[in-house]
Each structure stands twice: as structure tokens, then as C-alpha cells.
Amino acid sequence: MARKKIRRLLSGGAIVLFIVLFCVLDISVQAFEAVKVTHTVSGSAGVSGVTMQGLPGPTVVTDQNGYYSATVDYGWKGTVTPVLEGYEFTPKSKIYSKVTGDMSNENYTPSEITYTVSGKVNMEGVEMNGLPGNPITGSDGTYSATVPHGWQGTVTPIKEGYEFKPSNRGYPPVKSNQTNHDYTPEPRMLLIAGSVGVEGVVMEGLPGNIVSTQGGNYSVKVQYNWGGKVTPKKEGYEFSPPYTDYSNVTETQSNQDYIGQALTYVISGTAGMAGVQMKGLPADPITDENGYYTATVEYGFSKTVEPTLDGYNFTPASKIYTKVNSDRLNENYSAAMVTITIAGTTKMEGVVMNGLPGNPITGKDGSYSVTVDYGWSDTVTPMKDGYTFTPETKPYVAVTKDMTSENYTAKRITYTISGSTMVPGVTIKGFPGKVVVSDSSGNYSATVDYGWSGTITPAKDGYDFDPSNIQFDNISGEQPNQSFTPTIQKRTVSGKILSQNGQPIADVYIIADSGGSATTGADGEYEVLVDHGWRGKITPTKDGYTFNPTNKQYPVVTSDQKQNFTGVVRTFTITDSVIIGNTPITGVLITASNEKGTVGTATTDANGKFTVEVPYGWSGEIIPTKEGLQFNPPSQTYTNITGNYKNGELELIKIAPTPTTTTPTTTTPTVPTSTTPKPTVPTPTTTTPTIPEPGVPTPTTSTPPTEAEAPKTALEQDIATMQKQLAQLLRQRSGEGQVPTAAGIGELASGSGGPLISNTFVDNDLPTEVLPAIATQAGISIIPDETVAGMITADIQDQPLDTALEIVLAGTQYIVKKTPYYYLVCSGGIKDTMFANVSETRRLRMNYITSEAAVGLLATPFREYAQSEIGPTGTNTYTVVVTAPPKMMNRIISDLEQIDRPLSQILLDARIVVMEKGDLLNLGVEWGWPKIQAGMFSSDHYARGDPERDFGGEGPWGIQIGYTPDALFTSSLELTLNLLAQNGEATILTKPQVLAQDGKESKIEVTTEEYYMLTSPELAGSFYTRTELQEIKSGTTLTITPHLGDNNDITLQVAVEVSDSIPRGRGSDLPVVTRRKAENNVTIKDGGTVALAGLTENRTRKDVRRVPGFSSIPLIGSLFKSSNNENSTREIAVFVTARLVSNKGQAVEFTQPSDIPAPLRPAGNDFKARLRDSLLR
Question: Which residues pair with 572 in a beta bridge?
Fold first, then answer.
């Protein structure tokens, strides 16, 4: 083998060497041309397109005739394999070891590859359409078919009357056997479908008797070759055709239609008006112009019919129809119009709500409300001159519901009108809003609304202005320099002077202090001209008259005044006597008469004297007459009577001289002599009446005239009084009699209410007329702030200034702040701008209640003036700060003093008594003092509430609540308890005392704390145990809440708990605690006692004694032991005595009650008998 390799190597080396030498050496020899030797390999593969794999060079493929040919090198070797999908070749391949020549007829025989498609249809005679030869299933329902490689197609099983799942199968190019391709046969279902035009029609005869759907359609599948009779049926309908016969259905039956004709009925009536839609009836018909409607409904019509028309309600609102099967006539309704309310506010009066029906105008509160028809549509625009509104408009479209919050916000457009009046304090009338008054420089300024039109008129008492007014029309800008020139005015005081019978009195002289004068004419009228601001009085005078009123006082005349007087003729007396010698004559009739008649008569008395009354200026005769007597002369004559006459002479009255008062500003008027003549003394002719004697002449004695001083008239007296008062007032104003003040400080006098004020006001304006008049009369500045307004009617006569201001401000919210320099009148409201100037602040300390509680108890109007001190969170404070005007401050402080009162205190004296039930003096059963039985365990229903827990006032376990109403019975009770305790029949466990406040809960505890060692296993079955020291309280707990009534009645809410514990209970090693509770309310007097009884404890004790050992011997063991059962009953009673403790500052001393029995007090015989019986037991 090795040798062979060497040979090949050597041979090969020679060849290489030869080639190298041939190529390199430059040998000049002749060259040889070499040609490669090739051979052809060819043959047939039997079919075209066979790839001859393994041949060298390009891929060799058989031609259309199945031939191939390939060129190979000499000596080529390889394996050739024919390849074509779907074919197998014989031989499969050919091996070439060394080709040394052409090789033809290298043939291959092709054979086509086939596959089997098979499966089961489970039915005989099914044609498998699509498989080669369309094979048919055999009796076993199977099929099988051979298909060539790459076969593709769709196989569909076919048999009349059947459908298959799947309905077919598609095959891509087959490259393997396809087995188990099974099909499931189903009887073929054919569709029968159509329409009956009506929903709910039963298609009787079709499988399942199907029902038509909402559109009246129906459809159903039937088996191939199905046959039957189909009849559509529905109550209230007829159908055409009435039925359809089917036989051997072999194809779909569509458009199997029927025409349904509904049975119909008429529903008709009236809705009361046209245009009403009858909803619910077919097509919702609308009533005609007469309000009638009619509708045709199908058989069985079932619906609710509702008449509807926007803006109307109907009665009935609807009608329900169920399965109509007849005509329904006269189905009537009545209509009523629906109205909608549109309301809101503009927060301004007088706004025209343009667009709403009637264009309503807002009221004083700025609200509006209007009713519109249902469905109303329009646009509403609020309108008022000088205002804009937000929103500007509101559109409404088909309103269907109330709209009650349609609000607008108004914004005012304003401009300034300004100018000068040249004098301060001029009221500019005509401006809207507050009063405009010129300032100290005479300037004024006012704000008016946009578009304002009006006339402004300057007004000040005593002045006229030029121009008298200025008119403005639709202002749209600022208005400066609107000035006035002032001129002072005059005022008149005028009236009539009439007699008592209403007749005018002429020639009455009217004089005004420091003013003009006038004389009445024939009509009795007068008119006196005075300056504006004049003050004084007018006085009428005429000889022989007095006037009512005597005069009229005017504090300050600021307008024309009317004043009437009534004149009364003055009368005088003529007094004399009728005597004969020295004998008076009685019963003489004296008549005073003249040509106008008799003016008076008189009759002489027992002294012969008479007095007859005659009018001023009377002239006439005094005539005496008496039967049986004659008088000589027969009468006395009097002329121009101007005074009283006595005994024929004019009486002279001495009048003290009037002191002269110097008045710097007032001149006393002088009555002109031309109009008021000086009174003269009449000269009467006096005769003494005598009884005539025959032949004896009677001498006539004449009284010479006497010049007498005229008496001072009432007018002159009034003038003197007025002069005194005026002088006093002037002295006050000039500072006489006052304490001197520092230079430059003109403080107001702080006397008793200030100077006297007299004036009468009838519907006068407070800030512009009333207060200035009072200020002028008092000589003091009174300044009202801008909020002061109103009309005042008041009659003030000789009242101090402070009182006068209080009178005119009564019934208003205004107050007066008195300062050293002026009086300020303003509102006392906390939000007023002047509140800081008129208020004062005080800090008050509460003693018994918190500041927050005190402020909360003040009346609502006062709370805003008081504030509670704010302390740290969770703490109480006791300081109240009040800021208010002085008078309100005093009222608030007074109220706080009433509120901050100490709570009443009540001393509660308790006794807890234990005694045997039989020795309790029938306590809890029947008591000798007045008692009630009430209460229960842990309940207080008073026969109200839960019937299972309310026992109508009767304790279910014998609990009784008793009381002694006052101290008398309490003393008797104390005596009884002490006697029972001394006799050993009762044990007083404890006598605690506690001092409780009204309404505050108090608790008295008398308890024993006992400790028990309780042992329990730590775990079930565990060897270890756990021992715990447990505290148990037992004893008496008394909870009392006292409430003090208006009549010092004391209501006690009493709750008592009595508990007892024993170390070990029967059948248990655990301690047992027994608790008994009772509670109730009882009302008693001071010193009365509340008693709770019936807290009973039953104890059973069994004492067993035995001889050890012998007692356990059967049969005879009982001889060596004994047992004793003891039953005892204890009853616990609680007595609580309530006594009032004075709140006047004295301390209450707490001491233990004495064991000395209380002194005996009288008690009823029945009570004494029971007590005696108890003590004798």
C-alpha cells in the first residue's frame, strides 16, 4: 500500500516537473496542443421535467419527451438520480465509476405516486362529489378514493334531503394519505318565511306554532319533504288567505305572506277645546275646532290615553283601556289652563320688568312675580332710568315650569351736581336720596343718577334764592357751578279774633315782641309781619276784653303762622244796699238795664245788700223794685263802667310797681295812644232810695268824681313775667351765675337738663326744622349726622333741653351724644359710621357663669354689642367686653347682672338604714306620712313608653319611693329612726352629707373594696394555673341631682345602688356580688325627705354539724350529724333630706349629724299609733 502511494507520488512529480520545465525553460523546441477528452451520458426518464441530479455542469432536466443528455469528462465518476415530485423511478439511481466512453440509453422507468382519501359518512348512498370517480358510500357508510400525487379539489357529500357537516372539504395538493375525513349527515331543513303584517300572530301548523315578530314577520325551518297546513291566528284579526297547504317541500318557501285585517272599534269624545293631542290613541289624534276627537282602535286595544296640550291640565288626567272589544263613545275630558310663575328680585324698587306680561314693576323689597301662560316665550329686560342690570336681558323659550330665582343685579350710573349757595346750612331740595345741605363755606355737592331729571330748590329758613330753582333734564354728565344768590325773608303771623259766639271783634290791637303790630278790622282778621327766626309772643289787647289764649309764644318762627284768639267781654260788679233809716230791706229786686235791655238782676239779702254784674263799658240804670215800696229816685244811672263799684264809688286796687328789667336784645313794645285810649273812671250819680213821705222832699246826694289808678291788666302781668324769664335766659347766655371756664373753652353748662325749651311741632322735618329750632332756642349747637331723618309731631312746654331732645327722639332709633361743645344726634347702630363717636367700652367680669354663656343669654338685639373673651382652646373664660352707647350700655350691664347669679345650693343629708323587714315600720308597704309609690329598677317611664318595661308607677319588685313634704314630717322621721336604732331594731350604716348645686349631679359612695385571689388554669389540661388578685367593690352608691323650682320646691332625681358580696357562692368557688338599684324623681319642700325602700336582701344559711367518721356510717350515720337552716330578710332604706342653703355669702359648715333624737313635733294620730305599735314590738 505504501509502495503504491510512492508510485503515484513519483508519477505525479514527474508530470509536474515536466510541466515546469516546459513553461520555464527557454528551450527552443516545437510545442504540443492538448485537448480534453469528454463523453456523453444520455437516455430517457419517461416524463418531462425530471431533474437528473448528480450529472456535472448545469442542471440537467428532461425535455418534453422525457429525454436528457449530459457531457462528462473522460474518467468521470458519480451517481445519477432522477428526481420529479409525484414520481418514482426505476432504477432509483445509477452509479458511474469511470466513464471512458459515451453512455447512451441510460433510461429510467417512471411510476406515478398515488394516495388514498377515505372516511365515514355514516349513511349509505352518499355521493362524494369531487373525488375521482365520485365514489358512493357503501352500506357501512364509508368511502375511499385513490388520488394522484398533488391532486387538489373540493369534496362535497351529496344526498337528496340531507345536509352534511362539514358541508364540504377543500384539498390542497395531496402529498400523503388523507384518512378519517368523516362527515355527519343531518336531514335538510328548508326555510318557510313570510309576513302576516301583524305582530304576535300564531302560525298554527308550522313546527312549534311560531309567533310573528314585531314587524309581523315569521320564519321557520322544516325538514326536506315536509308537508302540512299552516293557518295564521290572532285574536281580533282575520287573515287572507286563511291558510296554506304544503306537500313534499323540497326547496325554500319564501314570501309566504298573509294579509291581516284587524277588527277595529271607535273611541271618541271631547277634550273641551281644540288642538288637544290624545296621546295613546293610534296616531295620537288632535281634537277639532269644537274639541271633539275620534280614533279607530284594533280589537283588544290596551293602552292609557292621555290628553295633552301645552299649558293645560285635564280631568281626568288619563283613561286606561284594557282589551277594547266594543265602541267607546263619550270618553270626555275637561281642560284647565296651566300657568307658570316667573319671579325674582332686582334688589331695587320700581324696576320695570319689560317683556313680562303687563310689564310688572318691582315692589319695595325689589322683588317681582308674574304669572305667564304655559309655553310663554319672550325676552325680559329690567329697566329703570339711571341703572344698568346684569344680566341685561333674559330670553325665555316655551316656559314649562316655575322659574322663581330670576334675579338681576342693578348698577347705578351717577354724576355730580355742585355749586354755591353763599350761606351755610342751605337745604338743597329735589335731590334724590339723602338731604343735601351746604357746608360752612356755602358750597354743596350731590350725586344723582344718570339721566336724572328734576328741579333743585334751595331752602333755608329766612331766605329766598335767585334763581328760585334750577331744572335738570336727562343729565348725562357732571354739572358744576350750579349756584344760587340768597335774600333774607319775612314771615307773617295772622289769624282771626272772634267773640264767644263767633262774631269778629274789631279794633283789637295785636303786638309782637320786638316785631310789628296790627289792629283787627271789621272782619276780626289781623296780620303781623316779623323777620324770619323771630322769637317772642304776640298779645291781643282791647279795653274790656280778655283773650283766650292770653298770648301765643313762638320759640322760633321759621314759617308763616296762624293763630286765632277768642275775645271774652270783661264784667264788673255794682254792689250797694237798700235801707230805710238803719233798717236793711230784704227781697228788693235790683235790675240793671238800658235801652238794649236787661243785662243783670239781683235781690237784696238779709242785710239789704245786693251785687249785680254788668259788662265792661256798660251804661244804664240800676232800678230797685219791691211790692209795697216806692223808691226815690226810682233808679241810679251809671256811665261807661270800667271797674267794680261799691256803695256808689269805684273801687281802687293798689298794684305793686313792676321791676324794670334791662334787656339788651328785646324792646318792650309801647301801645300807641291813638289806638288804645287810657281808661277813664266813670262818674255815676248815686242816690239813696227812701220811702216817700207826703209833703216831705227827698234830697239827692251826689258823689263827686274820684280819680283812681287803673288796675293792671292780665296782659301787663304776663308781659312782666315774660320779661323776668327773658332776663334770666339772657343772663344764662351771657354767663352770669355760671362757673367760669378756661379761656377759649366754651363748654356747655352741665346743669339739670339745660335751658328750658317751649315749642310745638306738627309734622316738621327732624334734621332740618325740629333740631335747628331747639338749637336756636337753647343757644347750643345740635348736629345731626347724615342718617337722621323723619317727621316729628310734639308739644314741648317749659322742658329742659335734655328732656326736650328725649321727647322729639322718642320712637326713633336715634340717640344723643352730649359733648362739652355740642350735642350729636345719630343712630346708635353698631354699623353706623358714628358708632365709634357715641359708644363706650366696658369690661365686665362674670362670677358664676362663663362669658360665652352670658353673651348667649342676652336678648338677640344686644348680643352684637357684647363679646366673650377668647381663651386657650378647651378653657372657660369669664370676661365680657361691651361696646355700646351709654343708655344701651346701662341696659346690657343690668341684664348681665341679672344673668350672672350664683346657682342655688342644696344640702343633701342622707341616711342609709338596714333593719329587718318586719321591723321597718311598714316602710315600703304602707307609710304613715304622705307618700307616693313609684319607680322601678333602672327605669323612669312614668307610665309612658315601652309597655314591657313600664309598670305604670308600681315597682315590680316592691320598690317604693316615699317622701316627707316638709321639715315637720322630716323631724318626726328622724325621731323614729333614732328610736329604732337605740332599740336595736335598725342599723344606720352611714350618714353622709354633700352640698350640691342646682342642676348639678352629686354622688355619695359608701363602699368596701375587697380583694379575692382568683385561680384558673392557664391552658386546658395544663399543669400550671394562673392566680390573679381581683378587686370587687360593694356597698351603697347614691346619685342625686337636685332641681330648684320657682317656689323653692326641690325636685330630686334619685338613683341608689346597694351591693353586697360574699367570698364564695353556692356550687362555685367564685365570689358573688348582689346589686339592687332604684331610681325616681320626687318633688319636696325645703327640709323635706325622700325615702327609697324595698331594697330587700334574702339570705339563706345552712349549718351542718357532724361527728367525724361516725356520720359516714350507712344507715346510722344520720344519728351523728345535725343541720340547721337559717333564713333572714334585710331591707335597706335610704332617706335623703334636702335643705336650701342661702346664697348671701355666708359659709355653710359641714358637720356630722348628731345622734341626739330630734325634738318631738306634732304628728297625726294615725302616725303616732303606728309609731307606738312599732316601739312595743
Answer: 614
Backbone angles phi, psi at 1176, to 5 degrees: -85, -15
Q: How crowded is residue 583: how many other Cβ atoms within 10 Å of its Cβ?
A: 9
CA-angle at 597, arms to 592 and 598, nearest 5°? 35
60 and 47 in a common domain: yes
The grid cell for 1101 is 344559711
Nearest to 555 by CA among 725, 330, 339: 725
Sequence-distant (6+) residues with CB within 8 A of 701 are: 686, 687, 688
The rounded distance, in Å, linking the Cα atoms of 750 and 733 is 13
- 836-847: buried (b, 16+ CB within 10 Å) or exposed (e) per residue? eebbeeeebebe
Instruction: Determine the residue type at 242.
Output: P
β-pair type (782-784, 823-827): parallel
* 1063 and 914 within one domain: yes
CATH number for the domain spanning 600: value is: 2.60.40.10
Task: Please identify, among 488, 520, 544, the residue that sits at the C-terminal boundary of a domain.
Answer: 488
Q: What CATH number should be reported for the domain holding residue 239?
A: 2.60.40.1120
CA 921/CA 975 separation, integer angstroms:
13
Any bridge partners for residue 1096, and if so which?
1131
How many domains is the chain built from? Answer: 10
Q: Is 1062 contained in some domain?
A: yes
- Residues 820 and 370: their CA atoms lie apart, in Å, by 57
pLDDT per position as a tens digit, 570-597: 888 989 888 877 788 888 999 999 888 8
Residues 765 and 815 in one domain: yes
Q: Comparing C-alpha atoms, which of 343, 397, 345 is closest to residue 374?
A: 397
Residue 739 resides in a domain: no
Cβ neighbours, 10 Å, residue 970: 25
1085 assigned to some structural domain: yes
Sheet holding 814-818, edge to edge: 782-784, 823-827, 814-818
Q: Which of 202, 230, 262 is the last residue of a domain?
A: 262
Q: How long a stretch of residues is the chain?
A: 1177
Same domain for 156 and 81, yes or no, is no
Domain containing residue 484: CATH number: 2.60.40.4130
Domain assignment of residue 79, given as a range: 38-112
How many alpha carbons lie under 13 Å from residue 1085 in its C-beta half-sphere? 8
Predicted local distance difference test score (pLDDT) of residue 1131: 73
State residue 936's pLDDT score.
31
DSSP letter, residue 208: T
Query: What is d(CA 1074, CA 217) in angstroms, rounded to the nearest whole number?
Result: 86
The CATH number that applies at residue 397 is 2.60.40
Asked if residues 269 and 316 have their Cβ atoms less than 8 Å apart, the reply is: no
**Claim to verify: residue 445 and residue 541 sit in the same structural domain:** no
The segments of the chain whose pLDDT lies below 50 read 1-29, 652-710, 732-751, 921-961, 1145-1165, 1167-1168, 1170-1172, 1174-1177
Nearest to 1169 by CA among 856, 956, 950, 928: 928
**Amino acid 36: pLDDT:** 86
892 contact partners, CB below 8 Å, separation of at least 6: 858, 862, 865, 866, 882, 884
What is d(CA 559, CA 490) in angstroms, rounded to the nearest whole number?
Answer: 9
CB-based contact 324:317 (threshold 8 Å):
no
Q: Give the pLDDT of residue 667.
A: 37
Q: Domain check: are 1039 and 1079 in the same one?
A: yes
* 12 found inside a domain: no
Instruction: Check which CATH number belongs to the domain holding 819 and give it.
Output: 3.55.50.30
> Are the CB atoms for 244 and 271 separated by under 8 Å?
no
User: Which residue, among 985, 513, 988, 925, has the nearest Cα to 719 in the 3D structure?
Assistant: 513
**Residues 1000 and 1128 both lie in one domain:** yes
Global confidence as pTM: 0.31
Q: How far is CA 521 from CA 510, 651, 681, 1099, 1118, in A?
A: 11, 33, 27, 121, 147
Beta strand 536-541 pairing with 109-112: unpaired
Whether residues 421 and 383 fall in one domain: no
Q: How many CB atoms lie within 10 A of CB 517?
A: 18
